[in-house]
């Protein structure tokens, strides 16, 4: 194998024993000849686009939510501002955010498959929103600044990216899933001395990148049979590339080089350290939340989270959901929204009596039990990111039905209000459009329970970027930045 790249005007040729593709593999199509089997899989991938902006804004009323999201705007996936997270309230509390002259917030915009993801258009949509915002935006119209701060990655200081425009959630089509695309990819791992670990192999999140490594090494033990001084080249120093390098370094491999095209590592992780309220608030533009499903991964990576605590982002009434149509929108708490959706599913309407609400709670408990049981039946485990082997046939329509259809057809429709928050507004697609398989991949059993602390999310006090900074430093990773890949011959 031969990899030719250029950095700093110098052309470098390396002959690795193993090539690890940790970037979007479609980005390498101009420089690497793919096999027909690989091309079929790559042509079946599609993705959303996320656009996030960190702003300094001026409150116009009391802050009573940490996060507000508008499901109808999320569903449209046209790049409109669909919500925000108040970083000041997350860091200092709602009372402090209400008293402060300014707040730091992060806005979300998402574009669906084949949508217009031009950054100029998205910036114009954001400006139009901020200049004439809807009633649920609790800040002054037209008063805001885009935050500009420096980023320090292990001593390398440069301007932080803001806004962030990034491809998001690579996914297979219904037909490709029915054809077993994720497992065909797993079967090909190691062929032509090539391994794919980018999020497109499984799912978008850090948890799934980490879990996929476990699946990969269990399925392909031959990857660990090479000499420990074998040269390994990892293309992409984003989350999946760093996790792969860390795992193989810990397994004794001593000759790993990561090639990164940008001037920074950590990929979609951008943890802006913003001066705020006499201290610092962390604004996550990319990688952001953790759920209880992350616990095992957090334990495994605890060496890299020293001094970095998990903090609650928004529980209970801190999470707001926009309902109604302009100009009469209102903001409901997440828990009330989920209960309302369950009551409406049962035909009770809203508002309804306490007795009918109690019946809706019972329906939710039953639906959560069905969800956990079916997921275990289909996936063969409680917390696996994906089944190691493709489920036989199309059990319960997980490949051919949308997530919403799957829930309705299996007596779980009452959960859709809660899953609107757990899945749809996280940017993973409309419940009425996305394959049920992806809903099951993301919504692990402890996330399906709609009540209590497990229904909430947490974040890192110092940001996700601190995790990767510690990992790169403690494992003394060899990362070459500003790299152009010229050719790859396998």
Polypeptide structure, described:
32% of the residues lie in helices and 25% in strands. With 490 residues, the protein is of the alpha+beta class. Among the domains are: 48-165 and 269-314, no CATH class; 316-455, Orthogonal Bundle (Guanine Nucleotide Dissociation Inhibitor, domain 1), CATH 1.10.405. Strands 4, 5, 6, 7, 8, 11, 18 and 19 form an eight-stranded mixed beta sheet that branches. A five-stranded parallel beta sheet has the order 12-3-13-14-21, covered by helices on one side. α8 crosses α9 (239-250).
How far the N terminus sits from the C terminus, by CA atoms, comes to 5 Å
**Could you report the average pLDDT, rounded to the nearest whole number?**
93
The Rg value, from CA coordinates, equals: 23 Å
Approximate shape = globular
Class by alpha and beta content: alpha+beta
The total strand number stands at 22
Low-confidence stretches: none
Q: State which percent range the strand residues make up.
A: 25-35%
Helix fraction by DSSP (H/I, runs of at least 4): 25-40%
Helix count, DSSP H or I runs of 4 or more residues: 17
Largest sheet composition: 8 strands, mixed
List the helices and strands and how they pair.
Elements: E1 2-7, E2 10-14, E3 18-21, H1 36-43, E4 45-59, E5 67-69, H2 71-76, E6 78-86, H3 87-92, H4 94-99, E7 103-111, H5 119-131, E8 139-146, E9 150-153, E10 156-159, E11 164-172, H6 174-178, H7 181-188, E12 194-196, H8 206-219, E13 232-235, H9 239-250, E14 256-259, E15 271-276, E16 279-284, H10 295-300, E17 310-312, E18 319-323, E19 330-333, H11 334-345, H12 354-379, H13 403-409, H14 416-422, H15 436-442, H16 445-448, E20 458-460, H17 464-474, E21 478-480, E22 483-489
Parallel strand pairs: 3-12, 3-13, 5-18, 13-14, 14-21
Antiparallel strand pairs: 1-2, 1-22, 4-7, 4-8, 4-11, 5-6, 6-7, 9-10, 15-16, 17-20, 18-19
Helix pairs in contact: 8-9, 11-12, 11-14, 13-15
């Amino acid at each position: 194998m031969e990899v030719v790249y250029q950095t700093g005007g110098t052309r470098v040729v390396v002959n690795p024993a193993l090539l690890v593709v940790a970037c979007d593999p479609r980005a390498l199509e101009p420089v690497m000849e793919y096999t027909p089997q690989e091309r079929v899989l790559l042509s079946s991938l599609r993705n959303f686009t996320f656009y996030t902006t960190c702003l300094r804004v001026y409150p116009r009323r009391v802050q009573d939510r940490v996060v507000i999201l508008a499901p109808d705007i999320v569903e449209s996936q046209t790049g409109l501002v669909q919500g925000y997270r108040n970083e000041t309230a997350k860091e200092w509390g709602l009372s402090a955010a209400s008293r402060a002259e300014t707040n730091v917030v992060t806005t979300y915009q998402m574009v669906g498959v084949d949508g217009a993801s031009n950054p100029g258009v998205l910036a114009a949509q954001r400006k139009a929103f901020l200049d004439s915002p809807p009633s649920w935006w609790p800040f002054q119209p037209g008063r805001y600044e885009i935050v500009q701060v420096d980023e320090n990655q292990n001593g390398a200081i440069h301007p932080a990216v803001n806004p962030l425009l990034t491809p998001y959630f690579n996914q297979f089509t219904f037909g490709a899933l029915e054809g077993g695309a994720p497992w065909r990819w797993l079967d090909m791992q190691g062929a032509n001395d090539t391994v794919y670990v980018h999020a497109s192999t499984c799912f978008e999140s850090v948890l799934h990148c980490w879990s996929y490594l476990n699946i990969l090494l269990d399925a392909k033990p031959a990857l660990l049979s090479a000499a420990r001084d074998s040269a390994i080249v990892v293309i992409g120093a984003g989350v999946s590339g760093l996790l792969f390098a860390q795992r193989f370094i810990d397994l004794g491999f001593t000759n790993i080089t990561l090639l990164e095209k940008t001037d920074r590592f950590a990929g979609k992780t951008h943890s802006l350290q913003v001066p705020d309220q006499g201290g610092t608030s962390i604004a996550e533009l990319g990688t952001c939340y953790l759920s209880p499903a992350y616990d095992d991964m957090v334990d495994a990576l605890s060496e890299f989270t020293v001094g970095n605590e998990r903090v609650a982002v928004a529980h209970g009434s801190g999470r707001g959901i926009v309902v109604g149509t302009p100009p009469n929108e209102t903001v409901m708490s997440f828990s009330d929204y989920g209960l309302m959706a369950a009551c409406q599913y049962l035909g009770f309407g809203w508002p309804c009596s306490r007795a009918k609400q109690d019946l809706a709670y019972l329906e939710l408990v039953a639906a959560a039990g069905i969800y956990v049981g079916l997921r275990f039946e289909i996936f063969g485990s409680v917390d696996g990111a994906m089944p190691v082997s493709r489920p036989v046939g199309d059990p319960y329509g997980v490949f051919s039905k949308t997530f919403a259809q799957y829930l309705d057809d299996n007596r779980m429709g009452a959960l859709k209000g809660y899953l609107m928050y757990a899945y749809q507004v996280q940017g993973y697609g409309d419940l009425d459009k996305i394959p049920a398989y992806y809903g099951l991949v993301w919504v692990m059993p402890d996330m399906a329970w709609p009540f209590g602390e497990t229904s909430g999310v947490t974040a890192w006090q110092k940001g996700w970027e601190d995790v990767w900074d510690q990992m790169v430093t403690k494992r003394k990773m060899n990362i070459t930045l500003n790299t152009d890949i010229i050719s790859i011959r396998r």
